[in-house]
Amino acid sequence: TVPPVRLKIPVINVDADVEHVGLTKEGAVGIPNKPDNVAWFNLSPTPGKKGNSIIDGHFGYSNRRPAVFDNLYKLKKGDKIYVLDAHGVMTIFVVQKLQSFDREESVPEIFNSLDGKSHLNLITCGGDWSEIAKSHSKRLVVFADLLVE
């Protein structure tokens, strides 16, 4: 399988390099090093393969610096997401729904799919910033399905 290198979401002006991340030492999904990049969770399938591919990105970055997923919440059902792999192959996904979850909530359907189809789930922060937790209170997830033509 060929790893992703670019994520494009024209409707919200996203055109980002894809970093590859695994689990942090705390057991959480890793995040991109740069606010302009996204990160593919390399323990999830490559985009276009069966299962739920996971890509996350920053929202509301420090010092009011723009971040890649600042406008993710503006996506609507039917919007297209493009993933380019290292061989130049473009895979297209279609947004199905957006859903917000509490930061600590366990949501297995983000990572697991039993329908045998190919999905792309984009994850970013939302809700209020907690100075104590150094994190936002919510997680916004965009659930998208592989475009089948």
Written account of the structure:
This protein has one helix spanning 108-111, and strands at 4-9, 14-21, 38-41, 51-57, 80-85, 90-102, 118-130, 135-146. It is globular, with a radius of gyration of 14 Å. It is mostly beta strands and 149 residues long. The mean pLDDT is 90. The chain has an eight-stranded mixed β-barrel.
What keyword list fits this structure?
single chain, 149 residues, mainly beta, eight-stranded mixed beta barrel, 3% helix, globular
Topology summary:
Elements: E1 4-9, E2 14-21, E3 38-41, E4 51-57, E5 80-85, E6 90-102, H1 108-111, E7 118-130, E8 135-146
Parallel strand pairs: 2-3, 4-7
Antiparallel strand pairs: 1-2, 1-5, 3-4, 5-6, 6-8, 7-8
Describe, in short, the structure shown.
This protein is mostly beta strands. The protein has 1 helix and 8 strands; from the N terminus they run ββββββαββ.
